[in-house]
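Changelog entry: the Putative integral membrane protein record was regenerated in this release. Current contents:
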Amino acid sequence: MPDSMRPRDDDGFIAGVHFAGDEDSAYQLEQWLRPLDGLNAHLRDEFGVPQPLGILCRSADHALAISEHTTLPVRFSRLFSGLTTFMSQPELRVVFYVNQSMKNFQALRFSGPAHVHLNHGESEKASMISNQLKAYDWVFTAGTAARERILGELIGMPETRMMDIGRPQLDEPRSVPSAWSDSSAAREQGPVVFVAPTWEGDSPEMAYGTVALSGMKLLMSLFDAGFRVIYRPHPRTGVVSPAARHARQECERLVNARANGFLDTSDGVSWQLDVADAAVCEMSSVAVDWLSTGRPLIMLRPADPRAEVIDGGLFDRARSLEPHDAARAGVDLRDALAHTEDACALADELASHYLGPTGPGQQQSRFEDAAVWAVRLRTERKA
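Regenerated structure tokens:
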């Protein structure tokens, strides 16, 4: 590990990101790199600090991988001594967290900076309403739905500790990768559907992924209905369940074998929102991000009855299917596209509830303004 990646007393960061997780979790931070880069520029202009924002990774592999995707300074320390150096910088005002790693609570013991939870997407998974949220000074929520969900589940969590910022990732510049443009699927005829399943989860309450039960039926239904399919497997699919891993491999082989299929291995979810005419999702942030398009969405419900599902949530408000009915997806999507006006009106209503204003640049602007507010407030209280 290069010496330059070790935390230093003179780093001078006024904002930091603490990141810890297993080897498959790098995507949680990667999706925040562009919004953080924008925030870095804002903080530089606002406070006149040459390099105001730095990232601390608790894994060497993560530090090396993240440093290849950003020009922001990346530091690494597995040890508490390095964590102390990073968190004890006198200039540090705010630290952001994008997950609920157990190591976050080593960092939360430091009282100097404010601790802000961002999460790595907006969804109605059980993890989004963890009681751990109470440990942070503020929680930056996406919109009304997130605040209502937290207030309804977490007893004693005050609304004053939540700030809506939308999903800044949706304001990132988008470009269609050549892999899609050059693919046979891009040249075929028929509407495009974006299929984005989630993973199987690490507990019954988080078992929202159904690829082992529905994956092949869903894809065959879409192909048979004449759709071009962009299929994006979740990076964690199969981490817990061998059956899910096998199903993922089967689905990938099927998609690769079809002229109108495209296996999406691009860096993130962005360009698909512009290319696809409709989407089929399970409970994940992709489903909520898709709402910003105003185009038809079908949700696949979890198969495990123990998975936590919110009454009146997205499964109830959007068009949804049980996993054993996945073979109907192609017909249902064709029907939704035939009644686009109704589907789009519903999507716009849901987008407002889950994301707030989604005009160009509005979500990134809200994130930056909220972060600067937190920095200023902490500065005043430390004065």
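DSSP finds 16 helices and 13 strands in the chain.
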